[in-house]
Amino acid sequence: MKNKLYIAYILLVISLFIGVDTLQFRGEESRRFLMAFEMFFSKDYFNPTVLGEDYFNKPPLFGIVIAQIFHVLGFSEFALRVISLISSILSSVFAGYVSFLITRDKTASILTAVIFLSAIDILFWYGFLAEIDMFFTLLVNISIFTFLYSVKSNNLLLSIGSGIFAGLGFLSKGFPIFLFAGTFVISLLFTHRDKIKPIFIHTFLAVFSFSIVCLIWFLNLKHPDLYIQRLFDESFSRVENPKSFLLDILDDFKFVLTTLKQFFPWSLVLVLLLFRSKLNTDFSFQSLKFLYIWVGLSYAIFLLLTDSAGRYILPLYPAISIIVSVILIKNRSDWLNKIIYLVLLIAFIRIVAGLILPDIYIERKGNLKSYANSIVKVVDNKRLVCDCHSKYEVCAYIDMVYRKPVYSSKVRQDFDFKVSCEREEELKAVQTFKIGKDNFYLYIK
User: For 364, what's the count of Cα atoms within 13 Å in the CB-facing half-sphere?
Assistant: First the structure.
């Protein structure tokens, strides 16, 4: 059985890589590319820019890592996404390792890794796209579980390490690290009441090392007040504004449905397990009580108090994978063969999707790399700016082909050519390109 699970896991890992080097930038990826690309040339790793303009919405660590990858792999879709690929795989391995430490069951361990990596939103979306979420998920889970074992083993160095990883988490996504780390400490206080004093000591050390990491970054900021304020606003803008009772209930219901969709098919498996009579939860509840509390408390905060998108709870998925695998092993081990076939089917679908969807997307969206080559050929070595703030992918592909940063006209006012997603009557359009249902233009000054 374990060998079959290993094969399923390896196939999932392989499938995760299919198409990542040909799919054009999606969503926030182009912004992440521009930030890392400009860091690569400026060597300023503390004060990120996008199109040359100060960028305060996210801390710099994700861009720093990508900029270093550019030194090794060059500028490409794969180079941008490899950090998410590695983070997803390491998160699954780490979850499997923690599962083994708790259960001492190798089957539950590998099943945990399989469950995490085959969740639909990880395998088909966040697991490979150059979004911060999987990188943040890895850092959060290393931090909290390192803290757990620092308490269990009374190892002060581990608590310091936990704080360092929490600091790196803050430098990746900002204030959400406080929610995940804070609720985890609360869950330990509930479940390890004989260790309250050690928990406070280890928390103090973790907070101290966390503060050192953040202070190093803070002291190197050009505009620390603006940066911290923007990060604060960005995080707390997710706090839900009161609506009517009915609308609040509807929003909560949508959030639950989003979660079920993201964690499919394991959300369905969990529902089926919960409806099974005489469900054996003795072992899972006693051994995983702190995870139940952490997941439940964190999820309740996002559900009831925020307007966050579903991806914000991705750091909970390794723990949820552990819980589901243990419940499954203890109650329906006879399902494992069917589950392996299900995972193999999911991996096959992911491979097919990776082979065909990039071409379909380019056909629908337009070949941005080809457009960029055409633009660079016309511009040659003259001064070029890019004002496509609504479609950063246009500027990102121009950067990739041009192989040097192209800034906005706000930053560089002495230009010869401008790429814009808006009609500008005072400039002459040299070329017009189709991007989805819209156009963008190359102008000459």
Answer: 9
Residues 6+ apart with CB under 8 A from 165: 139, 142, 143, 146
Residues near 95 by beta carbon (within 8 Å), at least 6 away in sequence: 112, 113, 116, 141, 318, 319, 321, 322
Q: Are strands 417-420 and 438-444 parallel, antiparallel or unpaired?
A: antiparallel
Q: How far apart are the first and last CA of the chain?
A: 67
Region class of 226: left (phi > 0), else alpha (psi between -120 and 50), else beta: alpha
CA–CA distances in Å: residue 198 to residues 63, 148, 149, 194: 36, 11, 12, 9
Instruction: Report H helices in 219-281.
Output: 224-236, 245-262, 266-274
**Residue for token digits 């709870």?**
313
How are beta strands 53-54 and 49-50 bridged, if at all? antiparallel
How do residues 329-370 score in pLDDT, each as one tens digit? Answer: 888 778 888 999 999 999 999 999 999 999 999 999 999 999
Report yes or no: 287 and 102 within 8 Å, Cβ to Cβ.
yes
Upstream peptide bond of 265 is cis (omega within 30 degrees of 0) = yes
**CB–CB of 17/86 below 8 Å?**
no
According to the model, what pLDDT value does residue 156 have?
Answer: 94
DSSP state of 94: H
Give yes or no for a contact between 315 and 302, defined as CB atoms under 8 angstroms apart.
no
Per-residue burial over 180-201, b if 16 or more Cβ lie within 10 Å, else e, is bbebbbebbbebbeebeebbeb
* φ and ψ of 398, to 5 deg: -65, -45
